[in-house]
Design a protein that fits this description.
The complex is a heterodimer of chains A (319) and B (476).
Chain A lengths: L1 H35 L6 H10 L5 E4 L2 H6 L2 H8 L3 E3 L7 H14 L4 E5 L9 H5 L15 H4 L6 H4 L11 H7 L2 H6 L19 E3 L8 H16 L3 E6 L4 E3 L4 H12 L3 E4 L4 H4 L5 E3 L2 E2 L1 H20 L9
Parallel strand pairs in A: 1-2, 1-3, 3-5, 4-6, 5-7
Antiparallel strand pairs in A: 8-9
Chain B lengths: L5 H16 L2 H17 L6 H20 L3 H37 L17 H16 L9 H9 L12 H4 L11 H33 L7 H32 L17 H7 L2 H12 L9 H19 L3 H19 L1 H11 L5 H24 L3 H13 L9 H23 L12 H18 L13
Helix pairs in contact in B: 1-2, 2-6, 3-4, 3-5, 3-6, 4-5, 8-9, 8-17, 8-18, 9-15, 9-16, 11-12, 12-13, 13-15, 15-16
């Protein structure tokens, strides 16, 4: 009898506690979700736009380097096609592939530029952690789920919470809904303009030796290529300039070039282009071009894409 | 298996449920198996090292009890050599070898002893010290030797405190494995609440601060003095929340199953002097050094210079315990110097307080003392956190010479960090200055109590850091 009373007491308390927790989780999660998708500026908004709204002919995928290096005006003028820059700070191959899945579910772009960074295939746990950028879309975009689940074995369990997808985004969501943010963090079709000129440019030398490659990243890169080819999208893989001296071609870039060549996809490597290294005034910092640099670079990429189209036999070579 | 992982959450639920389902006589076996699994989840092969010290100390305990005179001392020394030998090899071999190389190079010789690629077994210093406390206590006749090998192994391996303490004493823990721990709802809930608070400190405060601290300390040359000061203050809170958070989870997890582990932290940043700080910080280690090293050296029952030496030496060893690096040694030595200096100037400082009239203003006096102690602790933390001694001195120099705006990559970085610190100070302020006021987590009204717990979980989900949150003290 005593035991039965205790069990009822425990069950009652447990139910009450979990009811409170569920109500809080559900209601706060719903509020966060609502305001997440009403943002009109900022990097969270740009992900939503890329995944759910853009119908541009030319799409750019990549990290912050893509964000800063591909100016819409250059590509729109050169190709006379609409353009959107879907790059996002600190996100790499997994993110690009997930966004591509969302895009292909809605429409087929004509051209895709994939900005390929040095050490793209290097084993790095933080690349998986960064997949948290896609958590808000997990429930509504089943096509990105396999990529998000690469984040960890318990991700599906964590995603039972309605708050968790918006972890650490509270302030970004608030700012993304604020009017001043549009003026502060203005972007032009996803392109972030930087007019800074690097004050003290320091040319560092990067020595390369082979390292452990992340097979997941390689598989995803190949899937990215295959999906573009199967949709007849003109894919160009580009490594944009660094203000760094590579003693040899970066290991990941080398592997990336080999894979691209296997699929007969253009790979334009500007990492060893001496023009940019001799013009530090075109950089905002060691990894990012400023607007002037991006304009010159964009035109060079457009040139390479046009030449490549005319001379298909030259695919897989540098600029 | 980290305490802040889903893996551990599943493990904990399964083990605790089985613990209460099983009959008392089988529980130790369950806990021992669970502890083996827990330890092997890190690097499986290192359980052999743990097994070696357990076997040595188990037999040492029995031989110690069965022998007398000189033989007892021999058994004790043999056990200590085995324990310290393992610790020395895995933790200090490369450090000693590197320093020997520097010394020999300076004298124009080459060191031919090879450097080894050794991975430090998780929590080695913790379970080695716990095992050593057993043999010392048996030697001192204050603890009977444990005859049940499984129970002794469990004493060393009890999973909640296996990898980062609290470092238990046999008198406190061993007998608890024989006691029946009935299902006690209130005790279980209070243990779970302590685990939740520990998790909050770890995920919301420590891991958030770590992002800023790591960014600044790993690139000190790119940051000005103001930023380095902020990063150092953040590190003080980071390491406190990281380690005390771990201890809270450990103590809470043990309490759920009916075990009472010793308190490891008692709001150390409210200490009025360094001596008090060390009575509130990592209490299980401080008392270990006091019981087994400081008192063995003569404690304070010696001449004054020797007393000062004893204090300084104990802190130096404590520094070395934390890691095989000169930074830890300096950190320990600095704390030793603080303590000796505080003792030497005790009367002078009291005089100054009187002259300044601070004795008539106890509130202000306390605030000044707490602030001074915090600043001294922070200064020592620079050495603890810096990647090298050179870095530490570079950071200190820059703190006094380089000015500029405080770095923050994005405002949210600082806002979340400050929220965590303010939250912690509010909670601990109430505990320190109004200990009789009931906390929200223990409020008599069920709705307030449950809401407070649920809000902590919501905050963890909302602003906790879920990626890459390794516990700092695991490396020791």
């Amino acid at each position: 009898m005593k035991r039965k009373i205790l069990l009822i007491y425990i069950a009652k308390n447990a139910i009450l506690f979990f009811a409170i927790l569920l109500i809080l989780d559900w209601s706060i999660g719903a509020i966060l979700r609502k305001f997440y998708f009403t943002q009109e500026s900022g990097f969270l908004y740009r992900t939503t736009y890329a995944l759910e709204k853009t119908d541009a002919d030319i799409l750019v995928f990549g990290s912050s380097r893509a964000n800063h290096h591909y100016s819409p005006s250059v590509f729109e003028n050169r190709f006379n096609e609409s353009f959107y820059n879907a790059g996002r700070d600190g996100n790499f191959m997994f993110y690009h592939y997930a966004i591509l899945q969302g895009v292909l579910k809605r429409y087929t772009p004509k051209k895709i530029i994939l900005d390929f960074i040095s050490d793209e295939f290097k084993v790095d746990q933080s690349n998986y952690d960064r997949l948290s950028a896609l958590l808000p879309y997990y429930k509504t975009h089943p096509e990105i789920r396999p990529v998000v689940e690469l984040k960890g074995p318990y991700e599906r369990l964590k995603l039972l919470s309605d708050i968790y997808p918006f972890n650490s985004s509270l302030l970004s969501i608030a700012v993304g809904n604020a009017e001043f943010n549009k003026r502060r963090m203005g972007d032009v079709k996803g392109y972030i303009i930087s007019n800074d000129i690097w004050a003290n440019p320091q040319l560092t030398e990067q020595h390369q030796s082979p390292y452990e490659l992340d097979t997941n990243k390689i598989k995803v890169f190949e899937s990215f290529i295959r999906d573009c080819l199967s949709h007849n999208i003109e894919l160009s893989v580009v490594t944009s300039p660094y203000y760094r001296k590579f003693d040899t071609t970066n290991y990941s870039i080398r592997v990336g070039k080999d894979i691209a060549a296997r699929y007969k996809v253009s790979f334009f490597d500007f990492s060893t282009d001496t023009f940019f290294v001799s013009h530090p005034e075109l950089f905002a910092d060691a990894n990012h071009l400023n607007n002037n640099g991006a304009t010159i670079f964009g035109n060079r990429v457009a040139d390479s894409m046009m030449i490549s189209r005319r001379h298909v036999s030259k695919m897989g070579t540098g600029p | 298996m980290l305490f802040n992982s889903i893996h551990f959450a599943i493990f904990f639920v399964v083990v605790t449920t089985l613990y209460f389902v099983l009959a008392h006589k089988y529980r130790w076996l369950l806990l021992l198996s669970a502890s083996c699994y827990f330890y092997m989840a890190f690097v499986p092969v290192y359980i052999l090292i743990l097994g070696f010290t357990i076997v040595v100390d188990y037999f040492a305990g029995i031989y110690l009890e069965n022998s007398s005179g000189k033989q007892r001392k021999i058994y004790l020394i043999a056990s200590l050599i085995a324990n310290i030998g393992v610790l020395a090899f895995f933790k200090y071999y490369n450090f000693l070898n590197d320093n020997l190389s520097v010394l020999l190079n300076g004298l124009g010789y080459q060191n031919s002893i090879p450097r080894l690629s050794i991975l430090l077994p998780i929590g080695l210093s913790f379970h080695t010290f716990q095992a050593m406390s057993y043999t010392i206590e048996v030697y001192r006749g204050r603890q009977p030797a444990e005859r049940n090998f499984g129970i002794y192994a469990l004493y060393v391996m009890f999973y909640p405190q296996l990898v980062a303490g609290p470092i238990e004493r046999p008198q406190n823990l061993l007998h608890q494995f024989y006691e029946k721990h009935p299902f006690d709802y209130e005790r279980i809930v209070s243990g779970l609440r302590q685990m939740l608070w520990g998790l909050f400190k770890k995920i919301v405060i420590a891991d958030r601060l770590a992002i800023y601290v790591n960014t600044v300390y790993n690139n000190a040359e790119h940051h000005n003095g103001n930023t380095l000061v902020v990063a150092t203050i953040f590190f003080a809170f980071q390491i406190y929340c990281d380690f005390s958070g771990y201890s809270d989870i450990a103590i809470g997890a043990a309490r759920v199953m009916g075990f009472k582990l010793m308190t490891n932290f008692n709001r150390p940043y409210f200490s009025r002097n360094i001596s008090e700080f060390w009575k509130r910080w990592h209490i299980s280690l401080s008392t270990w050094f006091k019981d087994y090293l400081y008192i063995s050296l003569g404690g304070n029952r010696v001449s004054i210079p020797r007393w000062y030496f004893n204090l300084f030496f104990v802190f130096l060893v404590s520094g070395l315990w934390h890691g095989a690096n000169w930074t830890f040694l300096i950190w320990g030595g600095l704390n030793g110097l603080y303590l000796v200096f505080a003792l030497m100037t005790q009367h002078f400082r009291k005089g100054v307080d009187k002259v300044l009239g601070l004795t008539n203003l106890p509130g202000l006096n306390r605030l000044l003392e707490i602030s001074t102690t915090f600043i001294l602790a922070c200064f020592a933390w620079i050495f603890f956190r810096a990647n090298s001694v050179h870095d530490a001195f570079y950071i200190i120099r820059k703190m006094f010479t380089s000015r500029g705006p405080v770095y923050f990559q994005e405002p949210s970085m600082i806002i979340y960090a400050l929220f965590g610190i303010v939250f912690l100070i509010c909670v601990e302020w109430r505990q320190e200055f109004s200990p009789h006021r009931v906390s929200l987590l223990n409020n008599p009204h069920w709705l307030v109590r449950n809401l407070a717990c649920a809000m902590l979980i919501v905050l963890i989900l909302l602003i906790g850091v879920f990626d890459g949150g390794q516990f700092i003290y695991f490396q020791f």
